[in-house]
Design a protein that fits this description.
It contains five helices and eleven strands. With 223 residues, it is of the alpha+beta class. Strand 3 and strand 4 form a beta hairpin. This is ChrR family anti-sigma-E factor.
Length: 223
């Protein structure tokens, strides 16, 4: 694993200052990256220490007795319930089966049907009811996606296998953040496929070949 979110993005994640879609991609990355996970823990501890030194808020901001009573009477999960592991969830695409990261388990019922692009590229939308588009993307071995850029931001997290573009080769766990300043053409090796989690704030804009027809009327294309 060579490509990670920058420290500012991790700090924003620890402070809760990222949107739901970006937060999901980061949570999946943290699940497989001890280095970034520890960095987030450090940021959270720093934030906690800062809060401890702040003055107490006025008493009228504190929970009322009725509210406290309601909280204390809420049903509590037993230790046994908390220790029960989540059942692994798998997706099947192009006759291949993949186990999803645990951070995606709560959204397994929000994964749409796989759409096929020419028999080599597949996508399935994860409906988070957010403006940004979240997809699972699968590329078969030996695939090259036409060169494109982005009207907004594209976050990509490699879940399985790997792919290359003009900036390097990416393996499982790697996190990429691309913007309008980048043009790239993701390509899988001849002997390896790739499954990714993709977050797009705006459609892709193709910059080469006949794929530019999708840019008509300035709309671009969501995979």
């Amino acid at each position: 694993m060579r490509f990670h979110p920058d420290k500012l993005l991790l700090q924003q994640y620890a402070q809760g200052d990222v949107d739901a879609t970006q937060g999901l991609a980061l949570a999946v990355h943290l699940e497989s990256c001890p280095e970034c996970h520890q960095q987030v823990v450090r940021f959270e501890r720093q934030l906690g220490a800062k809060l401890e030194h702040q003055a107490m808020k006025p008493s009228d901001d504190l929970p009322s007795e009725d509210m406290l009573s309601q909280i204390l009477t809420l049903p509590q999960k037993s230790r046994e319930e908390l220790l029960v592991p989540s059942k692994p969830h798998q997706v099947t695409v192009n006759s291949r089966r993949f186990t999803l990261p645990k951070a995606l388990y709560p959204f397994r019922d929000r994964i749409g049907d796989w759409r096929n692009y020419g028999g080599k590229v597949f996508s399935a939308v994860i409906d988070l009811e957010e403006e940004a588009r979240v997809n699972l993307m699968y590329m078969a071995p030996g695939v090259s996606v036409p060169q494109h850029t982005h009207k907004g931001y594209e976050s990509t997290l490699v879940l399985h296998g790997g792919f290359s573009d003009e900036d390097g080769h990416y393996r499982a766990g790697d996190f990429l953040l691309k913007d309008a300043s980048v043009k790239h053409s993701p390509t899988t090796p001849q002997d390896e496929d790739c499954l990714c989690l993709s977050v797009l704030t705006e459609p892709m804009l193709f910059t080469q070949g006949v794929a530019r027809i999708f840019n008509m009327f300035g709309k671009g294309l969501y995979p």
